[in-house]
Amino acid sequence: VTWRFALEEIEGSVQHLYAQQFREQVEALSGGRIEVDVFPYGSLGTSAQLTELTRNGSVNLAFASPGHLADTVPETGLFNLHFLLPEEQEPARRLLEAPAFISAFEPAYHNAGLQLLGFVPEGWMTWTANNPLRTPSDFQGLRFRTMTSETAAEAFRSYGADPVQTPFAQVYSDLQLGNIDGQSNPVFAIEEMGFHEVQNVLTMARASRFIASVVANEDWFAGLPSQERKWLEETIAQLSEEAWTLQEDLNKERLETILEQGGIRVVRLTEDERAAFRDASLPARQRFIELTGEKGQALIQRATSIAGN
Ligand code: 6CS
Q1: Residue 250's pLDDT is what?
Q2: Shortest-distance atom of ligand 1 to CA 47
Q3: How far is the CA of 222 from the centre of ligand 1 (A)?
């Protein structure tokens, strides 16, 4: 049996390291009966196209980032909001691994023909531009690239930016050509996509974490023999835990690489500067509630009751 697993990131990324461990683990548990074919970003298309391929069963498993998924699965827009999830790692982790939290999203994924398997952290989003982004007014009129969904765009619109939604593969050339002024991603992704080569300042605001989801085609998942489903779920549970250290190590290592290469400077926001962004970010929560209704409101409550945000 072969399981096809599609990634939204290139080789060497968090998703790629995750998928390699996934393959090893599934192959070991099944004694080689299951083979996992991993497709890094580029081979099959944009994130939106990968989601489509998963829905129609061309691939069995995929990463689906809320930044791109939220127009299809509105509740996932929660992860596009800033200053919402717990800031400390342990409570964030408890929230993202809580079965009740995960199952609150399941119906929304099912509506899209997808089975949610788990959430995977990929590190803090960091902002790049040609100037430091210390206050919301620094975003005024900035053509800022976001992932391709309304809540992803709204998060930066609330700071005064002029958001531009584009697929990942287009970001480098848009920055280089000056079609956009800035973008947001974890450090590891900035390094491997080369965005630091075409941007002057990396601002660390710790406004949001990049959280991806791992999904399966709903019918494929429902039809799995129970033994195979057990192997799948066991592997996902183990990797959801390991992903926290995996991403932390990779982000640290890639920050060093970026700093060694030079050409981009790092700005870390103070608590006061962060507080101003937090205040400015709140209208985006309203937009999310408009798009998701009571269900979205309940998710915000659940996340903030842990976070105190
Ligand atoms: O910015 C993006 O579009 C992408 N960033 C990461 C880190 N993963 C996948 C996503 O498509």
Answers
A1: 98
A2: 11
A3: 28
